[in-house]
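Dear colleague,

Following up on yesterday's call, I've attached the two folding results inline so they're easy to grep. Please treat them as preliminary; we haven't cross-checked anything against experimental data yet. The first protein's sequence and structure tokens come first.
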Amino acid sequence: MTTKKDIESALMRGADTLRDTIDAANYKDYVLPVMFVKYLSDSYTDAVEELSKQYSGIRLERQKKYLPFMVAEGCSFYDLYQQRFADNIGQLMNAAMRQIEADNNQQLAGVLSAVDYNSENALGTREHKNAILRDLLEDFEPLDLRPSAIEVKEGQVPADVIGDINGADMLYGFVAGVIGDAYEYMIGQFASMAGKKAGSFYTPAAVSEIMARIVDVQPGERVYDPTCGSGSLLIKAAKKQNSKEVSIYGQEVNGSSVAMAKMNMYIHEIRDAKIGWGDTLANPVFLDADGNLLLFDAIVANMPFSKDKWASGFNPGGESSGKGKKEFKMEASLDKFHRFDWGVPPASKGDWAFLLHMIASLSVNGRIAAVAPHGVLFRGAAEGRIRQRVVEENLLDTVIGLPENLFYGTSIPACILVFKKNRPTTDVLFIDASKTDEAGNPRYIKATNQNELGQEHIDAIVDAYHSRTEQPGFVHVATREEIQKNEYNLNIPRYVDTFEEEEVVDIAAVQANIARLKQEIAEAEAKMDVYLKELGL
């Protein structure tokens, strides 16, 4: 039986195969599609075998058409594996993946055509490339991803994982959970390898859980991530409820991440997720029948931190600074959706541009949980005016300070901003989870490379969010008047006092200790002089 560990090991073998040939940030682009084809091939084989128990001949072929997806003859992982020594294996892999995509276009459009397995620029000369692709296929060949072959944990049944679903759907849902968990685990591992480039597609699982529990998506609601990356944050939010009862929307500007998000959704048995490709600010893809922004009940996002040139998509004429050229300046009037009427964020920092887009996309009782750098809390000029308007409109609900070195790609501390419409109160909750608790222990797990939040730290943050109760050094509920007195500066230390008074220094004791040390040094030097004379030195 295949375990989650087996899947993780196969993915890691694939990464090792690519080591020294391509940049670590690109491992995911080549490894995950191969595993995805293996998953589709094994699942299709399993489904056809089940049908064969009841049908044969023409009736069997007819029933195959009703399966959720198809893998045409000659395109399966097994077909590719049999041809792994072919001189044109890169072309064969490209052709098979594009055929699978074409045959399942409604669900898999753009998922398997984002990477060129026949590229000598990426994978080296023909001989080197062929050897790598052969090894990559061999890395996954022993992995059996048929639903009937996935191991169920001892004492656990599929219903424990996916809730009130009956029959075969129960088994498939559990399998999706096992494979999906392994898939997301490896996205995290690839993020670790990718370093600075990881921030564009991965949100740490602990942060995703906090945000999912805060927005608390309910059945029948629409959940949206305007910078969805690999889709893990969206999935975490949707899985708070049965994902089949939630409408999922995500947009992403990076084509590789779009493909990864679609694979991620598919593996998690989320077949109706809508993942759009494009610049969310300049060209939002989700609009209503009247051409206005589609509204969402819950929005989660780990947006690009302080994105430079965020408004370049609003500059169709390509105006720029330079001799004889007019310098482009973003103005609120250039946005037909009126997202920047409260202020236009600075050209070099797009944080509030994304936040204003989310606010404009909120339904009447919508809520947002978004990761942002601390600069959004205190930077002045246009950002200060936007911040004031957001507070005056009673949209800001909570500011949560997170520990430093928590996110891949940056060591700076970040925060989670929570916005809500139709709030019953006007206060703002401030939580500082970046320091120590009352016992002096860090509110996070310190690690060499990347700090982490344990389950007890996650629970503490979420409990503080729901209780909205004062906790010295951790939680403060600020009134509107208090924020006004601070001139709408939301820097967390202004509201949560985490200052630890240092112990009073006893000057007399310090002087006595210095005198004692001087005496000991003098005695040691005198002894050293005696020893040196005895040695004739």
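Below is the second protein, in the same order (sequence, then structure):
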Amino acid sequence: MPISSITIENFKGIKEPIRVDFKPITLLFGPNSAGKSTIVQALHYALEIFERNNLDPDRTSIGGKAVDLGGFETLVYNHDVSNPIRLKIDLDLHDEDLPQYFDGYEDVGLSQFSSKQIWEIPMRAMCAAVEITARWNHQLSRPVLSQYRVDINGARLATIRTTDDGKQVFLSNINPLNPVFLENISPDEAMDIVKRYLAEESPGEEEFQKLGPILPALMENFKLEDGIAGMTQAIGIAGAGTAMPQWGRALEVQGPIWADDTDPIAQGNLLMCLSTLIVGPGEVVRDELKKMCYIGPIREIPPRNFTPERTPDPSRWSSGLKGWDILYTAERGFVERVNRWLNRADRLDAGYSIEVKRFREIGEDDPISVFINEGVGLEEIDIIQRRLNEIPIKSRVTIREEKTGIELMPQDVGVGISQTLPVIIGALHIKEGMLAIEQPELHIHPALQVALGDLFISRVQAENLFFLLETHSEHLMLRFLRRIRETDEGNLPPGKDPLRPDQLAVYYVEQGEMGVSVLPIRISEDGEFIDRWPKGFFSERMEELFGK
């Protein structure tokens, strides 16, 4: 997953910035009301902003009834609207290409970068960070996105800002000495070349070319009467009262700011390159957040007359009902995968199996019933077959008790199974992105909790899937520690998947005088905590670490 971390400031109980780095499995521990759910809700809020430019949400697109953010005035720290909410999302771009934009320049023949030197710049972006700032605008009596900032390769790249009235949008603070622009020199070396140039010491042409094409392009293509565009003088750009760029589109410069002799292709190369580096990371953030699924802390049990969804609705994951939707339409192979995890002795061993029965409803006065009651001849077989094809196929999900063979409806089994099934189905069904689950261990005993750990481990090995787990389950964590130790010692039990320390992140979340704080707890190669556990630990640890 390209999203590698989130930094949160002035959001709900969080005052000072806290950073959470995501690993394939990320655990959030801490007391009740410590702020664990706040971190999950910050991702909900980020999705609302990046996807829908909604800075004042109550319900969220993936939260359903389980998440009600209450709007900006509820979300901002201490309900003080003078505070800005800041969210910063880091991206790992080693395996991700930034989107490119060439709209508006097709008429001058620019459908790709015309210069190899320009073309190579976006390819050098190995990491990025997008920071957004939401502020309350007293003139408009609503929150606005006042700033959108992008860092590339660990250094500031550029910032988009709005005026106080939200009517004008500016691009500023362009850093032409960002490492992504430079040709095999460091920013310090580049600054030395610039200083000598400004002091009229005239560095050689070959040395000056190491600065890359962006600084010369900014100085040559824009009018310089009021300063260097984007650096000492902000560039007006098209916007709709928000600093958030328009996804899928290049930045559009406002006003007569181009130098008179600027070539349109040179203009296009500059703007398209900047757009890729400024708009592109935000679009990647949006696309990755859209892949996020959320399962809330209380999963609904479907009613006896349950009907699966017809229109896809990602918010149904929040209540767990999406899992039942999937079962009702699942192929046999998927149901078998669910059952392997649900009832095998070396997995959850829950004592139940899922059965999905397909059937057609035939009324008493249906011609098929009449034919059957009166006797079926050869002539009626074709009529029956045509009639059967007209009747829709329905599904019924039952849960079979393994010991007795009795079929039960979901409402008739223990609440632990009904709470766990959506978690199992979500883990097996979702192929990529982040699956955030609050209390995956809800209402199940320790043996099932540790087995869920193996389910999560197996999925991060097989798919591009990441888990964010808000939990109180020490047993779940102990299973992860045990698998790390067994991986290091080379004695994993047959059929179990390995886990490395760099695939697991553990955070302890607590409330203090300065708001919510987050303490990362590092883990060694042999499955031990490197950092001290703030509130002590428990006796089951020894058995899980050293038991067989």
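For the second protein, one point worth flagging: The mean pLDDT is 87.

Best wishes,
A.L.
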